[in-house]
Amino acid sequence: MLVAANGCTVEVWIVFRRACLFGLVAAFAAATVLGCGSGERSGKRRIAVIPKGTTHDFWKSVKAGALKAGEEFGVEIVWKGTASEEDKEKQVQLVDSLAGTVDGICLAPIDRTSLVPPVVRAKQSGVATVIFDSGLEDASAIVSYVATDNYKGGQMAGEHLAKLLGGKGNVVLLRYAAGSESTEQREKGFLDAIAKHPGIKVIADNQRAGSDAEEALRTSSSLLQSLRGQIDGVFTVCEPNNKGMLQALENDNQAGKIMFVGFDSDPRFVQALKDGKMHGIVLQDPFHMGYQAVKTMVEHLEGKPVEKVITTGEYLATQENMDDPRMKELLNPPKAD
Hints:
Layout: H1 10-39, E1 45-50, H2 57-73, E2 75-79, H3 88-99, E3 104-107, H4 116-124, E4 128-132, E5 144-147, H5 150-164, E6 169-175, H6 181-194, E7 200-208, H7 213-226, E8 233-236, H8 239-251, E9 259-263, H9 267-275, E10 280-283, H10 286-301, E11 309-311, E12 315-317, H11 325-331
Parallel strand pairs: 1-2, 1-3, 3-4, 4-5, 5-11, 6-7, 6-8, 8-9, 9-10
Antiparallel strand pairs: 10-12
Helix pairs in contact: 2-10, 3-4, 5-6, 7-8
């Protein structure tokens, strides 16, 4: 009888080695199955939703809509945004880093020019992009653009302010940071509407404030001081600018005396509209925008045709109609933290 060096008979040693080999193969097979399951992410597609920012109520409503679509269509939503709505470099990095980990991207570009190259790179790597909220300078690499008609929204603001002023008076436009396509369209629409009323003069449209409400407060206060007694109406083009201007008007005891039209909602603006401190709010549908952006991406990934441009609507809330069911819904849209 042959005996192995470890004291076992040769027959026992062979059986032992075979058992070990079988165990290793079984373990490898199990690991492979588990590994494949992990790689496929349980069969769910992953869609990155990259907003301009994450702090303002507008983006929280966009997130709520995106999550609703993710739940409805069985996809995982990867929500990633920058802390500042002016950090375009960080947003470029986000697009580049997420492109290799997801099946599709829904992006609200901070800057219409700077975000074109990463979208092109994503497409070259096989990852499609749906743009929402704010457009790109070059849309040739995108699947679809889902947004408010911001030019029309700006026109609505201009026409409403002109009506409030009876077709005559001096107005101020507080602009947002340069490079944001959505707010630039609002500004253009507003100015084009005001230009149709020869009795109304734009006495200031060269001041800007970014995503910081404190900056908007400082800029608004400066405008009210330098143009004291000359301003009949103002228009602000986004949530942080609304906040800054409203606070400046209150601080200066001008709230309700100067006609004030803003763009986008927030609980404070709803109260200001009720109290007569704001005289109109142009509304978007951020919940629907987030939902529609994800829905459009899902349809594209499923090989279905999608529209190149999808509008999500624009509305004007006033003290007279703010209690209508649809306006109440738009003034207080669902939010997700």
